[in-house]
């Protein structure tokens, strides 16, 4: 009996993403027996490479344990390499021959195809055109295309790319990765909201004072500055990862758990957000911090090779957004992201309003908060008021704490890519960005990007390793955020 054959092709096989993430992820899925048994992996790139060289490029990232060595050899036996150009048919014809052969040895069963574009966006169009011409299925199996940001540079370029893709592939074949959607805590958001009567009814403007979604990294651009300078933190993190989380926090309950029902609701949220203005944003750029005992901190963003000395590209941004609908009108959504800050942390923080008719001494009660810590050290915790334990009657703030490391000691949380690639095999598009979602996210972000860029707005300087510009805290306070400490 032959199981359905699948082929997973990685374009850009010699690149960083392929060797750091994609091949290791495929290995982990293979190792854990999560993939269809009859699956072949193909690396495709322009350089001349042997399969040994391909293997050598990613093996050290696979963290193969001693007892897994023979299984790893089996994985390698399933890997092939095809050398070819991205804009010429020859390599794609070779790929077709490979797939046809695979079909033959699989008892002539049609091959399902997964194509991963781990390449710079400049070749997205070329590859997808060649794939559509040479490597689609014949209707008796399926073809899925996986792509990674950047999906364009602004609304126009993104629309152009989307139109191109839509002319060649159907929406249910296009899997746009936003790897934040593969993180445990981001996937947990819907369950928390829609699975708990205790949270659902208070999830609105009557009870919630603000929503903060933040992304902090404690390292700078580290030599990637030349690349980063063309995008900046707003395109790199806010337009995609943070905006996606926002939609999950703000959306109405979908009609079902089907991908289209969920994505419909997310799109409605995006449609209800208006573009922001300069007064709603603080942008920053990090400078060296000679006092820190860290060699990276000795370099500011402008010292990174490849970054123009007069660059005004933000490495930090805080934007205040509003969702103009009945549930959220007036509730600020703070999207905050930055590099070279004091810590690496991503979280969603829901700050609730003060209680009505407070009977405690003024100032004693603090606002309750619900925090979903995406990374590191996944947790859901709630800051609440409680009676100070003991003889007294005073109140104090404490935490209801669900730290995953404590509660789920034996559960390994898979990497975002493991989950997402598996979902592509399974055909679930819940955690992938639909064309209209992308379009509306760009509609929100493009005007402010244009304004910042046209006016060459100078970012506020902040020190490597600091909390970021104090102007950002001020803007949040102005919109009613209370730093509870
Ligand atoms: C990427 C950004 O999308 O996400 C990077 O391009 C950023 O700049 C990275 O460092 C962060 O991902 P993670 O999973 O390490 O938080």
Automatic annotation (TrEMBL):
Its EC number is 1.1.1.49. It is found in: Cytoplasm, Cytosol. One of its GO terms (cellular component) is cytosol. It comes from Diploscapter pachys. It is an enzyme of class 1 (oxidoreductase). It catalyses: D-glucose 6-phosphate + NADP(+) = 6-phospho-D-glucono-1,5-lactone + NADPH + H(+). Residues 190-481 form the Glucose-6-phosphate dehydrogenase C-terminal domain. PROSITE patterns: G6P_DEHYDROGENASE (PS00069). GO terms for molecular function: glucose-6-phosphate dehydrogenase activity; NADP binding. Cytosolic glucose-6-phosphate dehydrogenase that catalyzes the first and rate-limiting step of the oxidative branch within the pentose phosphate pathway/shunt, an alternative route to glycolysis for the dissimilation of carbohydrates and a major source of reducing power and metabolic intermediates for fatty acid and nucleic acid biosynthetic processes. Catalyzes the rate-limiting step of the oxidative pentose-phosphate pathway, which represents a route for the dissimilation of carbohydrates besides glycolysis. Belongs to the glucose-6-phosphate dehydrogenase family. NCBIfam families: zwf. Pathway: Carbohydrate degradation; pentose phosphate pathway; D-ribulose 5-phosphate from D-glucose 6-phosphate (oxidative stage): step 1/3. GO terms for biological process: glucose metabolic process; pentose-phosphate shunt, oxidative branch. Keywords: Carbohydrate metabolism, Cytoplasm, Glucose metabolism, NADP, Oxidoreductase. HAMAP family: G6PD (MF_00966). The keyword Oxidoreductase applies. Residues 9-188 form the Glucose-6-phosphate dehydrogenase NAD-binding domain. This is Glucose-6-phosphate 1-dehydrogenase. SUPFAM superfamilies: Glyceraldehyde-3-phosphate dehydrogenase-like, C-terminal domain, NAD(P)-binding Rossmann-fold domains.
């Amino acid at each position: 009996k032959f199981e359905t054959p699948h082929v997973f092709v990685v374009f850009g096989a010699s690149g960083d993403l392929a060797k750091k993430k994609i091949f290791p992820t495929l290995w982990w899925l293979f190792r854990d027996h999560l993939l269809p048994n009859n699956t072949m992996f193909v690396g495709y790139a322009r350089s001349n490479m042997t399969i040994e060289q391909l293997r050598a490029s990613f093996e050290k990232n696979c963290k193969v344990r001693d007892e897994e060595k023979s299984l790893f050899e089996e994985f390698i036996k399933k890997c092939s390499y095809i050398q070819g150009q991205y804009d010429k048919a020859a390599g794609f014809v070779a790929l077709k021959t490979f797939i046809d052969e695979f079909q033959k040895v699989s008892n002539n069963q049609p091959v399902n195809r997964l194509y991963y574009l781990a390449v710079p966006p400049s070749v997205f169009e070329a590859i997808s055109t060649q794939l559509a011409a040479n490597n689609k299925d014949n209707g008796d199996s399926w073809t899925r295309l996986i792509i990674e940001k950047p999906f364009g540079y602004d609304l126009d370029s993104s629309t152009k790319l989307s139109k191109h893709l839509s002319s060649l592939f159907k929406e249910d074949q296009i899997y746009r990765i936003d790897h934040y959607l593969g993180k445990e805590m981001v996937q947990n958001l819907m369950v928390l909201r829609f699975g708990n009567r205790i949270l659902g009814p208070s999830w609105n403007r009557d009870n919630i004072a603000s929503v903060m979604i933040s992304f902090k990294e404690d390292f700078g651009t580290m030599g990637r500055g030349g690349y980063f300078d063309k995008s900046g933190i707003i395109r790199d993190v806010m337009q995609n990862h943070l905006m996606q989380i926002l939609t999950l926090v703000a959306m109405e309950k979908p009609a079902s758990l089907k991908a289209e029902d969920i994505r419909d609701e997310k799109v409605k949220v995006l449609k209800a957000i208006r573009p922001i203005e300069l007064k709603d944003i603080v942008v920053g750029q990090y400078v060296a911090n000679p006092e820190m005992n860290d060699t990276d901190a000795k370099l500011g963003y402008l010292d990174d090779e490849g970054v123009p000395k007069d660059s005004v590209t933000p490495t930090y941004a805080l934007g205040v957004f509003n969702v103009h609908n009945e549930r959220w009108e007036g509730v600020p959504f703070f999207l905050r992201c930055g590099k070279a800050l004091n810590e690496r942390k991503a979280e969603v923080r829901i700050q609730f309003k003060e209680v009505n008719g407070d009977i405690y001494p003024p100032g004693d009660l603090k606002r309750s908060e619900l925090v979903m810590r995406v990374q590191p050290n996944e947790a859901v915790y709630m800051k609440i008021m409680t009676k100070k334990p003991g003889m007294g009657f005073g109140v104090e703030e404490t935490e209801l704490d669900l730290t995953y490391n404590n509660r789920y000691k034996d559960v390994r949380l898979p990497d975002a890519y493991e989950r997402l690639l598996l979902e592509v095999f399974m055909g679930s598009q819940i955690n992938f960005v639909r064309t209209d979602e992308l379009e509306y996210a760009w509609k929100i972000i493009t005007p402010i990007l244009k304004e910042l860029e046209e006016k060459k707005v100078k970012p506020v300087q902040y020190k490597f390793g600091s909390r970021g510009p104090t102007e950002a805290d001020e803007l949040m306070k102005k919109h009613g955020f209370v730093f509870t400490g």
